[in-house]
């Protein structure tokens, strides 16, 4: 099995690239068995060596260990996220517990931990700052992962982790299945009234792809749901689409996730207690900027009430229009919010985002992102065709600096398809590092835009364009990385800091340079008129009640789920009671309802961590004001400080220190309130 391409070093140009054209899915399971065995041999060699422990022979050796497994995991991660069809779900169910067991075997290796402890306690002061941070994080992570437990407790911990790995996989597969399984079918053209022609065309193609010619299909993803709720005049259609989307995995069928969530939460609490923590949230937050659940709750409480008050104002404005337009005396419901918000936007600011969309060409916006990266960081992007891709939709660019030196590769997978998880995300296939020699990063951005027909221009919404820039911020974080050790590279930073570089980049979409140079009408080529730009700027804080409450409700529920000591939680009941307790307005839902909340139940990644977007946005708002005070978002001095203090340093310094170096002081959280229009 060791001769499988899945286990071999990557070959080809640019320091080697993923061999997508030679991947055989039937080899994955055996390849993981072999790669785990190889990685275990690397760890055993480090732990069992006779030489006294040093940073080089232990920590650096660990940085270099398990490379075949890293490469394999990167490839399979794309299959499980972007190509989750055929045998992949079953393979993932087999592989996930094995990876969990391997991880535990490292953290529970007593000889290895003894070496790390000796370096941490006896050699710390002799190390360089980045090395000190690495050994500090490594030692504390081992402790948090059970290195000091008794043998019996370690065994119990491994059983819990294996169970969780299986449950996470089942949860994710259920969400994917529901997004594929539930489709809203439309068989009367009259029900399409109000929808933009481009949306209607994509719905028609979706139906044809599913063998339903003559009908229109609304698939069960956010990118398909959102325009219907925003523009469809048929209120019953809006309600049907809304219920289908927000009830994912809460339908009492085989894909219902409620029982899985109950198990996951109970196991997380049990694991936290075993490790000496009061709750899962206390365990997860120890290594973040926030440190404690109480700190996150303080920030969320600061924003919640002003946001709810703004929602009530927004609903009152909507209700006035609804009363004027309809003789049915409707009351605003969640499936009405987006629809009437657009009417209010038009009435208050004379802004119809439907008028903006013809200027939002995906390809042009991508060019705009490249231009921003050039202005801020000196990057140039050149399309390449000499590397394999995993799907025909994927394109690749080489990234160079102004001198023409190779920086890395950027892959882009923009369109929705069966087997691809919903939403948008960044992935690193390979992180930057420079232990023995420079190794360039390979990163990707992944979206779920609706693909146009042959020769058709793909137009996206303003919100989708914001998300596009957001995810590109993550990619630039990986591409700017300039560190020595892979564990500290790129986006390998605290969970509540990693969203800062991505959220700050959203601001460049709104700059005149992007709006005038790259927002060009898809038919005439004319730039976005200044009159529309002015309206966009005037409406910059419009609907912030909805945007903030929709997100923050999910973050609060996440934190409360993971700070309770209840051991048998009914997710639906807990969600309802929590929302009632905090005064959730009935006119809108959580952004992610609990049964399909992938961020917190598909892995430990964002569990007790969905607050991170708000925490990072406090940094973002303050950082953006620094550019505003400099007079331009393209100010070279501020851009250089952003790169040197934030984008390039990875986890080599404390994130709070990195922000201080950039801003010249600690964060001013009142900037967050100003950004959202909640301050006086």
Notable features of this structure?
alpha+beta, 7 strands, Neurolysin, domain 3, two-stranded antiparallel ribbon, 55% helix, Glutathione S-transferase Yfyf (Class Pi), Chain A, domain 2, 5-stranded mixed β-sheet
Shape: globular
CATH topology of the domain at 358-538: Neurolysin, domain 3
Overall mean pLDDT stands at: 96
The CATH architecture designation of the domain at 358-538 is Orthogonal Bundle
Compute the number of strand runs.
7
Strand content: 5-15%
> Main sheet?
5 strands, mixed
Structural class: alpha+beta
Strand order of the largest sheet: 3-4-5-7-6
Helix content: 40-55%
Number of helical regions = 27
Distance between the ends: 66 Å
Rg of Cα set? 25 Å
What is the level 1 CATH name of the domain at 358-538?
Mainly Alpha
Write a brief caption for the model.
The chain is α+β, with helices and mostly antiparallel strands and 680 residues long. The chain has helices at residues 28-48, 55-64, 67-82, 88-107, 110-122, 129-144, 151-181, 197-209, 222-231, 235-246, 258-274, 280-285, 293-325, 337-349, 353-356, 362-377, 462-480, 499-505, 512-517, 530-538, 544-561, 571-582, 598-601, 612-630, 636-647, 655-663, 670-675; strands at residues 184-186, 216-218, 380-384, 395-400, 406-415, 425-430, 442-449. The protein contains 27 helices and seven strands.
């Amino acid at each position: 099995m060791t001769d499988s391409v899945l286990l071999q070093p990557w070959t080809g140009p640019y320091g080697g690239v993923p061999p997508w054209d030679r991947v055989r899915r039937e080899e994955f399971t055996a390849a993981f068995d072999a790669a785990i065995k190889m990685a275990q041999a690397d760890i055993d060699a480090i732990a069992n060596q006779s030489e006294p422990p040093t940073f080089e022979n232990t920590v650096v050796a660990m940085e270099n260990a398990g490379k075949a497994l890293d490469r394999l995991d990167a490839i399979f991660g794309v299959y499980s996220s972007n190509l989750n069809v055929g045998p992949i779900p079953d393979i993932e169910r087999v592989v996930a517990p094995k990876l969990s067991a391997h991880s535990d075997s490292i953290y529970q290796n007593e000889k290895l931990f003894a070496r790390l402890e000796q370096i941490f306690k006896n050699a710390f002061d002799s190390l360089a700052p980045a090395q000190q941070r690495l050994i500090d994080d490594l030692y504390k992570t081992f402790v948090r992962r059970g290195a000091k437990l008794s043998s019996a407790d370690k065994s119990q911990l491994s059983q819990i982790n294996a169970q969780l790995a299986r449950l996470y996989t089942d949860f994710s597969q259920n969400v994917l299945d529901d997004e594929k399984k539930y489709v809203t079918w439309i068989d009367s053209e009259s029900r399409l009234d109000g929808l933009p022609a481009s949306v209607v065309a994509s719905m028609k193609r979706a139906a044809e792809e599913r063998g339903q010619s003559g009908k229109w299909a609304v698939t069960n993803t956010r990118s398909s749901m959102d325009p219907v709720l925003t523009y469809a005049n048929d209120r019953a259609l809006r309600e049907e689409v809304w219920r289908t989307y927000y009830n994912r995995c809460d339908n009492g069928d085989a894909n219902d996730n409620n029982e899985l969530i109950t198990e996951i939460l109970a196991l997380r609490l049990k694991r936290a207690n075993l490790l000496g923590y009061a709750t899962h949230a206390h365990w997860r937050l120890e290594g973040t900027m926030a440190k404690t659940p109480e700190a996150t709750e303080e920030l969320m409480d600061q924003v919640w009430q002003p946001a709810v008050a703004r929602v009530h104002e927004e609903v009152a404005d909507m209700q006035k229009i609804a009363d004027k337009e309809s003789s049915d005396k409707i009351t605003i419901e969640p499936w009405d919010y987006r629809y009437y918000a657009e009417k209010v936007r038009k009435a208050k600011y004379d802004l119809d985002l439907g008028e903006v969309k013809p200027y939002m060409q995906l390809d042009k916006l991508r060019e705009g992102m490249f231009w921003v990266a050039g202005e801020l960081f000196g990057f140039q992007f050149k399309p390449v065709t000499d590397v394999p891709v995993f799907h025909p939709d994927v394109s690749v660019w080489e990234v160079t600096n102004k001198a023409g030196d190779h920086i890395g590769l950027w892959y882009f997978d923009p369109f929705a398809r069966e087997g691809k998880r919903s939403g948008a995300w960044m992935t690193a296939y390979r992180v930057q590092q420079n232990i023995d020699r420079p190794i360039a990063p390979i990163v990707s951005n992944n979206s779920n835009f609706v693909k146009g027909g042959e020769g058709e221009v793909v137009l996206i919404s303003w919100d989708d364009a914001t998300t596009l820039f957001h995810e590109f911020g993550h990619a630039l974080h990986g591409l700017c990385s300039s560190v020595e050790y892979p564990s500290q590279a790129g986006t390998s930073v605290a969970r509540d800091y990693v969203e800062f570089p991505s959220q700050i980049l959203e601001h460049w979409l709104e700059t005149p340079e992007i709006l005038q140079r790259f927002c060009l009408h898809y038919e005439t080529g004319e730039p976005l008129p200044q009159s529309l730009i002015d309206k966009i700027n005037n409406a910059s804080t419009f609907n912030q009640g909805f945007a903030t409450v929709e997100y923050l409700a999910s973050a609060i529920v996440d934190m409360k789920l993971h700070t309770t000591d209840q051991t048998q939680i009914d997710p639906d009941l807990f969600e309802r009671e929590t929302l009632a307790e905090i005064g959730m307005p009935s006119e809108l839902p959580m952004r992610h309802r609990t049964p399909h909340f992938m961020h917190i139940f598909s892995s430990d990644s964002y569990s007790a961590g969905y607050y991170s977007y708000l925490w990072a946005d406090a940094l973002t708002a303050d950082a953006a004001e620094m550019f505003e005070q400099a007079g331009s978002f393209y100010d070279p001095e501020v851009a250089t400080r952003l790169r040197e203090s934030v984008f390039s340093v990875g986890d080599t310094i404390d994130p709070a220190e990195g922000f201080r170096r950039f801003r010249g002081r600690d964060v001013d959280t009142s900037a967050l309130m100003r950004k959202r229009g909640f301050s006086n």
